[in-house]
Design brief:
By secondary structure, this protein is of the alpha/beta class. It is built from ten helices and twelve strands.
Length: about 260
């Protein structure tokens, strides 16, 4: 373990730059994971971060000590907590950080359960949706080029480790991918605020892809036309629509319910 007290340390400085700049994250293909829970999932599923940055005050924490036991000592930097507070906009509880290579997933036509996100802009929504998708057993989440960056700190924070529990592919041409799904007899469902069939009456068995659109504008006409079904979530009178994350949860878990029903039959 290396003791670091200056922000000029090259490894610490590089990590701070990643935290501060989305451009740096995209250019280097690296991102920063915050907190013990997220890092535990990463170490279990992928491997050791390099570096792992731990505030001195966290070294006595049992969970942190268990994490350190699984990371090579040469990968670990111990720093004063004030150093992180002075040079980052991280939340106060983020006293353990890890720098990792940003995974680059590929869109698969073989997945049985896919979620498509088109132009979902809010990082908190993207993170919440990823967390729900992982919980629902989604094989992959495909993001259009205009979605929030899946590996930004806010998305990672909201997803709580879901990034490593489901496949993620960014910058996907969703219309073209949907055409490929339908060519192999899969079912693509466009969620729309109004005018679609009641989602609870639609067959949502696999192979299945569900499309969720932008928070304000919804799905593009091109992607709606590419799908073979349109689904609307029934709501009480005078309600226009649900938040994108809430809509995704409702539709995904209706699909889960149907799949469980078929399995138990």
């Amino acid at each position: 373990m290396q003791r670091v007290v200056s922000p000029q340390n090259p490894r610490l400085r590089a990590a701070l730059a990643l935290i501060a700049s989305s451009r740096e994250r995209r250019k280097t293909g690296r991102c920063v994971l915050e907190g013990v829970h997220l890092l535990q999932v990463y170490v279990q599923r992928v491997g050791a971060p390099d570096p792992l940055i731990v505030a001195d005050e966290a070294l006595a924490n049992d969970e942190v000590r268990a994490l350190l036991a699984r990371v090579p000592p040469d990968n670990v930097l111990a720093v004063p907590a004030r150093l992180l507070a002075e040079h980052t906009a991280l939340p106060p509880h983020a006293n353990v950080l890890g720098v990792v290579a940003t995974p680059r997933g590929r869109a698969s036509q073989q997945a049985s359960f896919t979620l498509m996100l088109e132009d979902v802009q809010d990082p908190g929504n993207v993170g919440s949706i990823l967390r729900t998708a992982a919980a629902a057993g989604v094989d992959q989440v495909l993001l259009s080029a205009t979605c929030a960056f899946a590996w930004s700190p806010k998305v990672l924070r909201a997803a709580q480790g879901a990034h490593f529990l489901t496949g993620i592919a960014e910058d996907v041409d969703l219309v073209a991918w949907t055409a490929g799904l339908r060519a192999r007899k899969g079912r693509a469902v466009a969620t729309v605020a109004r005018g679609g069939a009641d989602v609870y009456t639609l067959p949502l068995t696999t192979p299945l892809a569900i499309a969720i659109g932008n928070e304000g504008a919804g799905l593009s006409a091109a992607l709606v036309d590419a799908c073979d079904l349109r689904a609307t979530i029934p709501m009480a009178a005078d309600n226009e629509s649900l938040n994108a994350a809430a809509a995704a949860a409702a539709v995904l878990f209706e699909a889960v319910r149907q799949r469980r029903s078929v399995k138990h039959r």
